[in-house]
Amino acid sequence: MLFNLWTVGLFCLVGFVSTKIADSTEANLQPNINITRGTPALPGDFPALGAMRASTGSLRCTGTLIGPYHVLTAAACVFGMNSDALSLFTMVFKSLRVTGGVGSISRGVRKCIVHPNYSITNRKFNVAVMLLTKNVTEIPFTKLPTASSGSYENVMAVLAGWGTTAQGGSISPVMLKANVKILTNAFVTAQYGDSFVPKVMMGAAAPDNNTCQGDMGGPLYVKGVQVGITNWGLSCTDPAKPRIYARLTSYVDWIKRTLINNPK
Ligand SMILES: *[C@@H]1O[C@H](CO)[C@@H](O)[C@H](O)[C@H]1NC(C)=O
Ligand SMILES: *[C@@H]1O[C@H](CO)[C@@H](O)[C@H](O)[C@H]1NC(C)=O
Ligand SMILES: *[C@@H]1O[C@H](CO)[C@@H](O)[C@H](O)[C@H]1NC(C)=O
Ligand SMILES: CC(=O)N[C@H]1CO[C@H](CO)[C@@H](O)[C@@H]1O
Hints:
Thrombin, subunit H; protease; signal; Peptidase S1 domain-containing protein; binds 2-acetamido-2-deoxy-beta-D-glucopyranose; Peptidase_S1_PA; alpha+beta; hydrolase; 2 domains
Protein backbone atom coordinates (compact mmCIF):
# COMPACT_ATOMS: atom_id res chain seq x y z
CA MET A 1 0.00 0.00 0.00
CA LEU A 2 2.54 2.44 1.19
CA PHE A 3 4.67 1.44 -1.74
CA ASN A 4 1.81 2.10 -4.12
CA LEU A 5 1.41 5.59 -2.71
CA TRP A 6 5.05 6.26 -3.32
CA THR A 7 4.90 5.03 -6.81
CA VAL A 8 1.62 6.49 -8.05
CA GLY A 9 1.50 9.61 -5.86
CA LEU A 10 4.75 11.15 -6.87
CA PHE A 11 5.35 10.53 -10.51
CA CYS A 12 7.30 12.98 -12.52
CA LEU A 13 4.35 15.35 -12.39
CA VAL A 14 5.39 18.78 -11.33
CA GLY A 15 6.18 21.20 -14.13
CA PHE A 16 8.63 20.56 -16.92
CA VAL A 17 12.33 20.84 -16.21
CA SER A 18 13.88 23.39 -18.46
CA THR A 19 17.04 22.23 -20.13
CA LYS A 20 18.10 25.81 -20.67
CA ILE A 21 21.54 26.33 -19.26
CA ALA A 22 21.64 29.56 -17.31
CA ASP A 23 25.31 29.76 -16.44
CA SER A 24 28.25 27.46 -15.99
CA THR A 25 27.51 26.73 -12.35
CA GLU A 26 23.89 26.04 -13.06
CA ALA A 27 24.94 23.99 -16.09
CA ASN A 28 26.54 21.48 -13.80
CA LEU A 29 23.32 21.00 -11.93
CA GLN A 30 21.26 20.52 -15.07
CA PRO A 31 20.42 17.21 -16.67
CA ASN A 32 22.41 18.21 -19.72
CA ILE A 33 25.62 17.51 -17.66
CA ASN A 34 31.11 14.72 -20.58
CA ILE A 35 33.58 12.63 -19.45
CA THR A 36 36.58 14.87 -19.59
CA ARG A 37 39.62 13.28 -21.22
CA GLY A 38 38.22 9.78 -21.12
CA THR A 39 39.21 6.99 -23.47
CA PRO A 40 36.79 5.37 -25.94
CA ALA A 41 34.89 2.45 -24.44
CA LEU A 42 35.11 -0.93 -26.17
CA PRO A 43 32.14 -3.01 -27.30
CA GLY A 44 30.82 -4.91 -24.32
CA ASP A 45 32.50 -2.70 -21.68
CA PHE A 46 29.22 -1.31 -20.37
CA PRO A 47 26.42 -3.42 -21.80
CA ALA A 48 23.68 -1.97 -19.56
CA LEU A 49 24.48 1.67 -20.37
CA GLY A 50 22.00 3.56 -22.51
CA ALA A 51 21.73 7.10 -23.90
CA MET A 52 18.53 9.06 -23.35
CA ARG A 53 18.09 11.00 -26.56
CA ALA A 54 15.50 13.56 -27.51
CA SER A 55 13.65 13.32 -30.82
CA THR A 56 15.77 16.32 -31.87
CA GLY A 57 18.82 14.07 -31.45
CA SER A 58 20.23 15.82 -28.41
CA LEU A 59 21.52 13.83 -25.46
CA ARG A 60 19.50 14.49 -22.35
CA CYS A 61 20.94 11.98 -19.93
CA THR A 62 22.32 8.51 -19.44
CA GLY A 63 20.78 5.53 -17.70
CA THR A 64 21.43 1.87 -16.96
CA LEU A 65 19.18 -1.11 -17.52
CA ILE A 66 18.19 -2.66 -14.19
CA GLY A 67 15.22 -4.73 -15.30
CA PRO A 68 13.50 -5.79 -18.53
CA TYR A 69 11.52 -2.52 -18.69
CA HIS A 70 13.56 -0.52 -16.19
CA VAL A 71 16.25 2.12 -16.50
CA LEU A 72 17.98 3.66 -13.51
CA THR A 73 18.78 7.35 -13.89
CA ALA A 74 18.92 10.63 -11.96
CA ALA A 75 15.66 12.20 -10.83
CA ALA A 76 16.70 15.54 -12.38
CA CYS A 77 16.66 13.84 -15.82
CA VAL A 78 12.93 13.16 -15.74
CA PHE A 79 11.45 15.21 -12.95
CA GLY A 80 8.34 17.05 -14.04
CA MET A 81 7.81 15.04 -17.20
CA ASN A 82 4.45 13.49 -17.95
CA SER A 83 4.06 10.65 -20.43
CA ASP A 84 3.72 13.08 -23.36
CA ALA A 85 7.01 14.72 -22.45
CA LEU A 86 8.66 11.34 -21.91
CA SER A 87 7.42 10.08 -25.25
CA LEU A 88 9.78 12.54 -26.96
CA PHE A 89 12.73 10.52 -25.63
CA THR A 90 14.34 7.24 -26.67
CA MET A 91 16.74 5.06 -24.73
CA VAL A 92 19.49 3.71 -27.01
CA PHE A 93 21.37 0.62 -25.82
CA LYS A 94 24.08 -1.62 -27.23
CA SER A 95 25.80 1.12 -29.12
CA LEU A 96 29.07 2.92 -28.58
CA ARG A 97 27.80 5.74 -30.77
CA VAL A 98 25.35 8.11 -29.20
CA THR A 99 23.37 8.04 -32.44
CA GLY A 100 22.74 4.28 -32.21
CA GLY A 101 22.72 2.49 -35.56
CA VAL A 102 23.24 -1.08 -36.69
CA GLY A 103 22.89 -3.58 -33.85
CA SER A 104 21.65 -1.01 -31.33
CA ILE A 105 18.44 -1.35 -29.36
CA SER A 106 16.07 1.64 -29.10
CA ARG A 107 13.08 1.86 -26.80
CA GLY A 108 10.55 4.54 -26.04
CA VAL A 109 10.12 5.88 -22.54
CA ARG A 110 6.61 5.39 -21.17
CA LYS A 111 6.69 6.47 -17.56
CA CYS A 112 9.03 7.47 -14.79
CA ILE A 113 9.10 7.05 -11.05
CA VAL A 114 11.06 9.68 -9.20
CA HIS A 115 12.23 9.03 -5.65
CA PRO A 116 9.39 10.41 -3.49
CA ASN A 117 11.70 12.62 -1.43
CA TYR A 118 13.40 14.31 -4.38
CA SER A 119 12.74 17.94 -4.99
CA ILE A 120 14.34 20.29 -7.43
CA THR A 121 15.85 22.44 -4.69
CA ASN A 122 17.12 19.42 -2.83
CA ARG A 123 20.10 17.59 -4.30
CA LYS A 124 19.36 14.52 -2.25
CA PHE A 125 17.30 11.56 -3.49
CA ASN A 126 18.32 12.32 -7.09
CA VAL A 127 17.30 8.86 -8.27
CA ALA A 128 14.57 7.72 -10.66
CA VAL A 129 13.45 4.68 -12.61
CA MET A 130 12.17 5.00 -16.19
CA LEU A 131 9.86 2.41 -17.67
CA LEU A 132 10.35 1.49 -21.33
CA THR A 133 7.60 0.90 -23.87
CA LYS A 134 8.95 -2.57 -24.69
CA ASN A 135 11.23 -4.86 -22.73
CA VAL A 136 14.93 -5.36 -23.42
CA THR A 137 15.93 -8.97 -23.03
CA GLU A 138 19.16 -9.03 -25.05
CA ILE A 139 21.49 -7.32 -22.59
CA PRO A 140 22.46 -8.04 -18.97
CA PHE A 141 21.16 -5.73 -16.27
CA THR A 142 23.58 -3.53 -14.38
CA LYS A 143 24.72 -5.07 -11.08
CA LEU A 144 23.77 -3.06 -8.00
CA PRO A 145 25.45 -3.14 -4.57
CA THR A 146 23.72 -4.35 -1.43
CA ALA A 147 22.69 -1.86 1.24
CA SER A 148 25.67 -2.97 3.36
CA SER A 149 28.35 -2.90 0.66
CA GLY A 150 30.38 -0.21 2.48
CA SER A 151 31.46 3.37 1.87
CA TYR A 152 33.90 2.87 -1.04
CA GLU A 153 36.15 5.64 0.32
CA ASN A 154 39.49 5.77 -1.56
CA VAL A 155 38.35 3.06 -3.97
CA MET A 156 39.03 3.39 -7.71
CA ALA A 157 35.93 3.55 -9.88
CA VAL A 158 35.10 3.74 -13.58
CA LEU A 159 32.56 5.98 -15.22
CA ALA A 160 31.24 5.96 -18.74
CA GLY A 161 29.02 8.05 -20.98
CA TRP A 162 28.78 10.48 -23.87
CA GLY A 163 28.76 13.80 -22.02
CA THR A 164 30.69 16.84 -23.11
CA THR A 165 34.42 16.35 -23.00
CA ALA A 166 35.08 19.82 -21.62
CA GLN A 167 33.08 22.20 -19.50
CA GLY A 168 30.79 23.98 -21.94
CA GLY A 169 32.03 21.71 -24.77
CA SER A 170 29.96 19.48 -27.03
CA ILE A 171 28.92 15.92 -26.34
CA SER A 172 31.13 13.02 -27.32
CA PRO A 173 29.88 11.04 -30.35
CA VAL A 174 31.40 7.85 -28.94
CA MET A 175 31.07 6.35 -25.48
CA LEU A 176 33.99 7.30 -23.27
CA LYS A 177 35.24 5.77 -20.04
CA ALA A 178 37.48 7.20 -17.36
CA ASN A 179 38.97 6.18 -14.03
CA VAL A 180 38.24 8.25 -10.96
CA LYS A 181 38.81 7.77 -7.25
CA ILE A 182 35.97 7.84 -4.74
CA LEU A 183 37.00 10.42 -2.19
CA THR A 184 36.67 10.39 1.57
CA ASN A 185 33.48 11.93 2.91
CA ALA A 186 35.62 14.29 5.02
CA PHE A 187 37.35 15.64 1.89
CA VAL A 188 34.11 16.19 0.01
CA THR A 189 32.44 17.80 3.01
CA ALA A 190 35.36 20.22 3.25
CA GLN A 191 34.67 21.25 -0.39
CA TYR A 192 30.91 21.42 -0.42
CA GLY A 193 29.80 21.79 3.20
CA ASP A 194 26.20 20.88 3.96
CA SER A 195 25.29 20.47 0.27
CA PHE A 196 27.13 17.15 0.49
CA VAL A 197 25.17 14.55 2.43
CA PRO A 198 27.52 11.53 2.86
CA LYS A 199 24.74 9.14 3.78
CA VAL A 200 23.17 9.41 0.34
CA MET A 201 25.98 10.88 -1.80
CA MET A 202 29.59 10.11 -2.72
CA GLY A 203 32.21 12.34 -4.34
CA ALA A 204 34.71 11.20 -6.95
CA ALA A 205 37.39 12.91 -8.99
CA ALA A 206 40.68 12.49 -10.80
CA PRO A 207 42.77 15.12 -12.52
CA ASP A 208 41.17 15.46 -15.97
CA ASN A 209 38.70 12.63 -15.52
CA ASN A 210 35.21 13.27 -14.43
CA THR A 211 31.66 13.48 -15.55
CA CYS A 212 30.43 16.64 -17.19
CA GLN A 213 27.28 17.94 -18.89
CA GLY A 214 25.30 15.10 -20.55
CA ASP A 215 26.53 12.38 -18.19
CA MET A 216 23.82 12.91 -15.63
CA GLY A 217 22.01 9.73 -14.71
CA GLY A 218 24.99 7.62 -15.76
CA PRO A 219 26.81 5.01 -13.72
CA LEU A 220 29.86 4.97 -11.47
CA TYR A 221 31.19 1.39 -11.33
CA VAL A 222 33.45 -0.36 -8.82
CA LYS A 223 34.60 -3.79 -10.05
CA GLY A 224 31.61 -4.08 -12.35
CA VAL A 225 29.03 -3.08 -9.72
CA GLN A 226 27.21 0.22 -10.18
CA VAL A 227 27.71 2.09 -6.90
CA GLY A 228 26.67 5.58 -7.96
CA ILE A 229 24.56 7.70 -10.31
CA THR A 230 26.05 10.89 -11.74
CA ASN A 231 24.28 13.79 -10.07
CA TRP A 232 25.99 17.18 -9.83
CA GLY A 233 29.19 19.11 -9.23
CA LEU A 234 30.65 22.56 -9.65
CA SER A 235 33.47 21.72 -12.07
CA CYS A 236 34.08 18.87 -14.49
CA THR A 237 37.82 18.68 -13.93
CA ASP A 238 38.91 20.51 -10.76
CA PRO A 239 39.87 17.70 -8.30
CA ALA A 240 39.10 20.11 -5.48
CA LYS A 241 35.50 20.25 -6.74
CA PRO A 242 34.61 16.57 -6.99
CA ARG A 243 31.49 15.50 -8.79
CA ILE A 244 28.76 14.08 -6.68
CA TYR A 245 27.06 10.74 -7.24
CA ALA A 246 23.97 9.28 -5.63
CA ARG A 247 25.22 6.62 -3.20
CA LEU A 248 23.39 3.51 -4.39
CA THR A 249 23.84 1.51 -1.19
CA SER A 250 21.30 3.89 0.35
CA TYR A 251 18.83 3.53 -2.53
CA VAL A 252 18.87 -0.17 -3.42
CA ASP A 253 15.91 -0.94 -1.19
CA TRP A 254 13.78 1.76 -2.82
CA ILE A 255 14.95 0.62 -6.28
CA LYS A 256 14.01 -3.00 -5.55
CA ARG A 257 10.56 -2.03 -4.26
CA THR A 258 10.01 0.20 -7.27
CA LEU A 259 10.75 -2.71 -9.62
CA ILE A 260 8.45 -5.04 -7.68
CA ASN A 261 5.64 -2.48 -7.74
CA ASN A 262 6.14 -1.69 -11.42
CA PRO A 263 6.88 -4.98 -13.10
CA LYS A 264 6.39 -3.39 -16.52
C1 LIG B 1 11.27 10.06 2.66
O1 LIG B 1 11.39 10.90 3.80
C2 LIG B 1 10.55 10.51 4.88
C3 LIG B 1 10.65 11.59 5.93
O2 LIG B 1 11.98 11.84 6.27
C4 LIG B 1 10.99 9.13 5.36
O3 LIG B 1 10.17 8.71 6.42
C5 LIG B 1 10.86 8.15 4.22
O4 LIG B 1 11.35 6.88 4.61
C6 LIG B 1 11.63 8.62 3.01
N1 LIG B 1 11.33 7.76 1.88
C7 LIG B 1 12.24 6.95 1.33
C8 LIG B 1 11.75 6.09 0.20
O5 LIG B 1 13.40 6.91 1.67
C1 LIG C 1 9.26 -9.39 -23.15
O1 LIG C 1 8.23 -9.06 -24.04
C2 LIG C 1 7.82 -10.18 -24.83
C3 LIG C 1 6.82 -9.66 -25.90
O2 LIG C 1 5.83 -8.90 -25.31
C4 LIG C 1 7.24 -11.24 -23.93
O3 LIG C 1 6.84 -12.37 -24.68
C5 LIG C 1 8.29 -11.66 -22.90
O4 LIG C 1 7.73 -12.57 -21.99
C6 LIG C 1 8.82 -10.45 -22.16
N1 LIG C 1 9.95 -10.86 -21.31
C7 LIG C 1 10.18 -10.28 -20.13
C8 LIG C 1 11.36 -10.80 -19.37
O5 LIG C 1 9.51 -9.35 -19.70
C1 LIG D 1 41.76 8.98 -16.53
O1 LIG D 1 41.12 7.89 -17.19
C2 LIG D 1 41.95 7.28 -18.15
C3 LIG D 1 41.10 6.30 -18.95
O2 LIG D 1 40.48 5.36 -18.15
C4 LIG D 1 43.14 6.62 -17.41
O3 LIG D 1 44.00 6.01 -18.37
C5 LIG D 1 43.90 7.68 -16.61
O4 LIG D 1 44.88 7.05 -15.83
C6 LIG D 1 42.94 8.46 -15.71
N1 LIG D 1 43.65 9.61 -15.10
C7 LIG D 1 43.85 9.67 -13.81
C8 LIG D 1 44.62 10.88 -13.35
O5 LIG D 1 43.44 8.84 -13.02
C1 LIG E 1 33.79 16.90 -28.26
C2 LIG E 1 34.52 17.65 -27.18
O1 LIG E 1 34.00 18.57 -26.58
N1 LIG E 1 35.73 17.24 -26.91
C3 LIG E 1 36.54 17.84 -25.86
C4 LIG E 1 36.75 16.86 -24.75
O2 LIG E 1 37.56 17.37 -23.73
C5 LIG E 1 38.86 17.61 -24.19
C6 LIG E 1 39.71 17.98 -22.99
O3 LIG E 1 39.11 18.96 -22.22
C7 LIG E 1 38.78 18.71 -25.27
O4 LIG E 1 40.09 18.98 -25.77
C8 LIG E 1 37.89 18.22 -26.40
O5 LIG E 1 37.72 19.25 -27.38
